[in-house]
Amino acid sequence: MTMDKATFTRKFCDRLLLVFGKKVDNATPLEVFQTVGLLIRDILKHKWKKTEDMYQQSKERQVYYFSMEFLLGRLLYSNLLNTEMYDVCKESIAEMGFNFEEILSQEHDPGLGNGGLGRLAACFLDSLASLELPGHGCGIRYKYGLFQQKMVDGYQVELPDYWLEEGYVWETKRLDKTVEVRFGGEVKTSVENGRLSFHHHNYERVLAIPYDIPIAGYQNNTVNTLRLWSAESTSNDFHFHSSDRNDYYHYLDYKQSVEQISEFLYPDDSYFEGKLLRLKQQYFLVSAGLQSILRHFKERNQQLSLIPDRICIQINDTHPSLVVPELMRLLLDEENLSWEEAWTITTKSVAYTNHTTMSEALEKWPVHMMKSLLPRIYMIIEEINERFCQQLWHDFPQLRDQISDMAIISFEQVHMAHLAIVGSSSVNGVAKLHTEILKKSVMKPFYTAFPKRFTNKTNGISHRRWLLSANPNLADLISNIIGKGWIKEPKELIGLLKYANDASVQEQIAKVKQENKTKLANFIQEHYHLTIDAHSMFDVHIKRLHGYKRQLLNTFHILHLYQVIRAHPHVDMAPRTFIFAAKAAPSYHFAKKVIKLINATANKINQDPIARDKLKVIFLENYNVSLAEKIIPAADVSEQISTASKEASGTGNMKLMMNGALTLGTLDGANVEIKEMVGPDNIFTFGLTADEVLAFQERGAYRSRDIYNGDQRIRTLLDQLVHPFLTNDDVEFKDIYYNLLYNNDEYFVLKDFDSYLEAHELVEQAYRNNQDWLKKSITNIAHSGKFSSDRTISDYASEIWNIHPISIQE
Ligand code: 26W
C-alpha cells in the first residue's frame, strides 16, 4: 500500500491537525516527525496484521530471539525505505518547508543496549524480516536506556537517558497480552494423585506488560514483532479499606520495587556483577516471554510435544539462560508433564550463543540469591545439575575427574554458561577463531562430551542500515556500477571487484568518501568548534571503552607521533585525524582514565602549533548508533586492535570495511575472516596471535617491565604519564602507569607497541599511494557481502533453527 505525494501530504495535514491541533506553518520539527511516524506506522499495521495471521495459520517453526538488549537505532529512515515511502515523504516534507534531515534527527535513538551484543540483535531482526523469516525479538522496555555521555573537563559524566519523554511512536501497548511474573516466597510440596506437586506461596506479583514494535522487512510484506516487556504493579493484593493505616505506604513500597525491574539498562559490558536487580530483570524477561509464547502456542496446538517443531528460542549470551529452568517449570508445574517429557521439549527448543570467553564476563549467580529470589527455579536447576552430573559419571568415564569443573552448581554459585550448554541443543560462537577457542579451551570438556552441539556462526551486520541508509551516496554509486541487486543479495557486492583498478570508479569512490569526510568535519566544527583537515587521513576507533579493546595502545601511538613531530618539526608525514568515540561503564575506573587520557592528549596536540597541520585528535561524546552512522562513512582507517583472543568477533570492523575503510587490526575475532576474504594486501595486521597470548598467559611468561626497560620510546611515553606533561599534575594518570608496569599490562599493550607502530608505517605508505589505497578500499567493499547479517541469519536458519521463509501476500 504505497501512496502518491498528494495523498501523503493531505494525510499528513489531517493527522497533524488531529493529533497536535496544528497547521503546517506552526508545527515544530518534533511534531512533524511524530506525524510522519504515525502515518508510516499505519502502513506497517496492515502488513503486521497479515503477517501475524499467516504465522498463526502456518505450521512452520518460528524463532524467538531472547535478549536483554536490542540496540535498534532510529527507525524512521529504514521504515521509509522498507515501505517504499522514502521519496514521497522526503519531497512532501521539503515542499511543506521542512528540513528532512532535521525531521529525521528528532527521533530519540533508543539506547536499549550496551554495544556489540545488542546491536547484533537489532541487525538480526532486520535480516529475519527482510528474508521473510518468521522470527521475533523478546526483550525489556527499559525506561532509561544506556546513559548519555557528556564530557566535562575531559572526564566522562553520565546523564540519564529518558528516551520515552516524548513517547515512542513505533510501539503499541498490548494490555490484553499481560502476564504475571512471581518472585520470592516459599515452595511447598504435596502428593496429588501419586505425583509430587509444587506450590508457590507468599510471592511478589509483578505484571509484565508487552509493548510491541513492528520490524519491517526491506520492500516485502513481512512485519515481524519485537516485544519489549515493562514491569508494573498490581493493586489487587491490597485491601485499602482495612484498618491498617500503613497499607498505603506498603503499597507504594511494593509499587516502587516492582517498577524498578524495568527501570534501567545495566551499563556493564563484558563485566559480570552479581546484582540482585539484574537477576530479577533476567527472570522477568524469561518468564514473561515464555508464558506469552506458550499461551500463543496453545491457541493453535493441543499437543505440547509439538513445541520443538513450532518454536525455537535463541538466547543471546547467558543473560536469558533461565529460559531453561523456566520452560521446565511451566511444563512440569503448569502443564503436568513428566520430567523426561519436559526435558526433551526444553532441550530441543533452546539454543545458546556465546559472545565472550573472558572469565570476568561469565555469569555466576550466588546460590543464596537464586534460592531466595526464585525458589522453584532453583529447585529445578538443582535437579538439572544432579541429573547432568549423573549422566557424566555414567556416560563419560573419561570426564569423571572434571565433573566438578562442569557442574552447573559449584562453590555456592550457579554457572549460567554450563546451564545454557546443558539445556540446549546448539551452542555457537560468533567467529571462527572464537568458536575454536570455546572448543579448545573455555568449554573443552563440554565439547568432548557433546561435540555435535557446537557450531560457528560468524556475525554479520545489516548492509541495509550500515551501507544503504548510513551512506546513501556510496550506495547509489555502487548501484550505478553493478546494479541494485546487492540490496537484496549482498553477495553481489563482489561485482565491484573487477572495478578495483578502474580509474574512473576509483575517482568516484574517492569523491564520495571526500564528501562524507567533509560532512563529518563540518559536524565536528559545529559541535566541537574544532577545525580538522577534511583531506587528512581519518583514523577511527569507535567501540565500548575496555582494556582489551586497547584504546590505550592507539593513544600511545598518537603520543609517539607527537614526540616525533616535536623532535623533527619538518618530518614528512601524511596529515592525520584520530577520531575516538566510546562509553565506559560508570564503575570502570581504568576505562574512564583512558577517556581522560585521550582528551588530555587531544587538548595538548590540537593546541600545539608544531602539530597543527599534521595531527588532530578528537573524542566524540555519546557514542551511539546515530553517531556511528555519521562517523563510519567518513573513515579511512578502522582500528580493530584488541588483544588477540579477547574480541569474540567485533562487528564495527565489518561496518567500516563495508564503507571502504581499511582495517588496521590484530588477528582477533572476525578480523581473521576479513583477512581471509580480502587477502593480506588489503588489510594491515600486527601483534601477538591468539595462540601466543594464550601461551603467555598459561606460562606467566610475559614481563612488561622488560619491555619498558628495553624500549626508549615506551619509557618516554610512560614517564610522561607520571610527570606534568599532559595535565598540570603527576597523579592523574598514575593508575594507568601502575597498571602497565606493576600489574604486568594484562592486555599486552607494551608487547604489541612496536609491531603496531610498524603496521602504522605501512598504513601511511599505502595511504600516500592514492590509487593503490582506492584499489584496496574497493576490494574491501566488494568482499563485505559475506559479512551481511543476511548471510549470518541464513546460516542460523538452516543449521540451527530449521526455519523457512513464509511469503506474506498483499
Ligand atoms: C553480564 C555482563 C556482561 C554484559 C554484556 C557480559 C557480557 C556482555 C556481552 C557478551 C558483551 C558483548 O557485547 N560482546 C560482544 O558481542 C558482539 C556480538 O557477538 C561481538 O562482536 C563482540 O566481539 C563481543 O565483545
Written description of the protein model:
The chain has 810 residues and is α/β, with parallel strands linked by helices. It folds into two domains: 58-73 and 109-459 and 795-801, Rossmann fold; 481-691 and 751-787, 3-Layer(aba) Sandwich (Rossmann fold). Helices cover 48% and strands 15% of the residues. It contains 32 helices and 23 strands. Strands 1, 2, 5, 6, 9, 10, 11, 12, 16 and 17 form a ten-stranded mixed sheet that branches. The radius of gyration is 27 Å and the shape is globular. It starts with a helix and ends in a 9-residue tail after the last helix. The mean pLDDT is 97. The site of ligand 26W has 23 residues, from helix 6.
SSE order and pairing:
Layout: H1 5-20, H2 29-57, E1 62-66, H3 76-82, H4 86-95, H5 100-104, H6 116-130, E2 135-140, E3 148-152, E4 155-159, E5 172-173, E6 179-183, E7 186-192, E8 195-201, E9 204-216, E10 223-232, H7 247-259, H8 276-300, H9 307-310, E11 311-316, H10 323-334, H11 339-349, E12 350-353, E13 364-366, H12 367-373, H13 375-395, H14 403-406, E14 409-410, E15 413-415, H15 416-422, E16 426-429, H16 432-442, H17 444-449, E17 454-456, H18 463-469, H19 472-482, H20 503-528, E18 537-542, H21 551-567, E19 576-581, H22 589-607, E20 615-619, H23 625-631, E21 637-640, H24 652-658, E22 662-666, H25 671-678, E23 684-686, H26 690-699, H27 704-710, H28 712-721, H29 734-741, H30 749-768, H31 770-783, H32 789-801
Parallel strand pairs: 1-2, 1-11, 2-10, 11-12, 12-16, 16-17, 18-19, 18-21, 19-20, 21-22, 22-23
Antiparallel strand pairs: 3-4, 5-9, 6-9, 7-8, 9-10, 13-15, 14-15
The site of ligand 26W has 23 residues, from helix 6.
